[in-house]
Amino acid sequence: MALAAARGKLIAVIGDEDTCVGFVLGGLGEMNKNRTSNFMVVDKNTSIGEIEETFKNYLKRDDIAIILINQNVAEMIRHVIDSHDLPIPSVLEIPSKDSPYDPSKDSILRRAKGMFAAEDFR
Amino acid sequence: MSDKDRLNVFPSRMALAIIKTRLKGAQKGHSLLKKKADALTLRFRMILRKIITTKTEVGEVMKTAQFSLAEAKFTCGDISLVILQNVTKAAVKVKSKKENVVGVTLPIFESYQDGGDTYELTGLARGGQQIDKAKKSYGKAITLLVELASLQTSFITLDEVIKITNRRVNAIEHVIIPKIERTLAYISSELDERDREEFYRQVKKGSRKKEKDQSPRGGNKESPNGRKGWPWRGSTKHI
C-alpha cells in the first residue's frame, strides 16, 4: 500500500469509446504486465455482467485511486456503485457524449441533497 | 427504571467524590466532542459547496474536451483504434497526500506528469494540431476530475466521521450523563439515610447513658417528660 502510494496511482476509465479515447489521449491509459488495461470501452454489445466484473476488478486493484465512469454506464451498475462505500478508490461519474449530466442520479450528490437548497443544484 | 440504570457502586463518600469527577469528565468530553463535530461540519459544508461548483465546472470542461476530440476525429479520420492500441505507460498519475482536520486524515489527490507523451507522433500526417488541442483539453479535464475526486473522498470520509462523532455526543448527552446523575442521586440519598440513622443512634446512646446515670440516684425509669416509648424526645435538649 505504502509502496503503491509512493509510486503514484492510476486513474481508471469505464465509458463509451469517445470518452476512453479522449482520456487515453490525455495520457492516463496504462497496460500492465498481464496485458490488462485500466480502461474499458463500453459499446452496445457489452453486457452488464462484464461491466460489473471490470468495475469490481478495478475496485480490488490497489494501484487505482480514481475510477471515472460515464453516467449512463454507472446507471447500469448502480447497485454495485452504491454498495462501494470506501473512500479509495473514489468513483466519479462523468457526463458522456450522448447523455447530459443529471446531478440527481449521482450517488454522491444524492447523499448531499438533504443539506443544500435546490437552487444550488441549478 | 431509575433504580436499575445507574452505575454499580457502593454508596460511600469516596464513591460520591469519584462519581462527581466522572460527571465532570463526561461534561468536558461532551463539550469537546461537540466542538469537534462543529468543526467537522464546518469543513464538510465547505467541501460540499466546492463539490457542487466543481461538478458544474467539470460539465463545461468535458463539453469542450468532447468537442475538441470530435474536431480531431473530423480532421484525421478515426484515430480511436490507433490510440487505444498504443497504450503503454500512463503519463498522468495520481499522488495522494494526507491532510489532517481535527484528527481525521483526509486523502488529497494530486495529478502529476510521469514520463513522456506516448502520442507524440499521432496525427503527424494531418490533424496534428487538433489532436494536440484535444490532448490539452482532456489533460485539463483530468486535473479537474482529480480535484473533484479528492473532494469527494474527503466528503465520504468526513460524512462517516461526523456520524460517529454525533453518535458519541448523543450517547454522552442522553445515556452516560443521566446515568451518572442517577448514581449521584442514589449515593446522596443513601448517605442521607445513613446520616439520619447515625443521628438516631447517637441520640439513643446519649439517652441511655443518661438513664443509666439517673437510675442509681432517682430510680425513675421513665423519661423526664413522662412518656415511656420515646425516651429521646425529651432528652434531646440535654445533649
Automatic annotation (TrEMBL), chain A:
Keywords: Hydrogen ion transport, Ion transport, Transport. GO terms for molecular function: proton-transporting ATPase activity, rotational mechanism. It holds the Pfam family ATP-synt_F. One of its GO terms (cellular component) is proton-transporting V-type ATPase, V1 domain. InterPro entries: ATPase_V1-cplx_f_g_su, ATPase_V1-cplx_fsu_euk, ATPase_V1_fsu_sf. Subunit of the V1 complex of vacuolar(H+)-ATPase (V-ATPase), a multisubunit enzyme composed of a peripheral complex (V1) that hydrolyzes ATP and a membrane integral complex (V0) that translocates protons. V-ATPase is responsible for acidifying and maintaining the pH of intracellular compartments. Belongs to the V-ATPase F subunit family. V-ATPase is a heteromultimeric enzyme made up of two complexes: the ATP-hydrolytic V1 complex and the proton translocation V0 complex. This is V-type proton ATPase subunit F. It comes from Biomphalaria pfeifferi (Bloodfluke planorb).
From TrEMBL, chain B:
The keyword GTP-binding does not apply. It comes from Biomphalaria pfeifferi. It comes from the Eukaryota. The lineage of its organism: Eukaryota, Metazoa, Spiralia, Lophotrochozoa, Mollusca. InterPro entries: V_ATPase_D. GO terms for molecular function: proton-transporting ATPase activity, rotational mechanism. Keywords: Ion transport, Transport. Gene3D superfamilies: 1.10.287.3240. This is V-type proton ATPase subunit D.
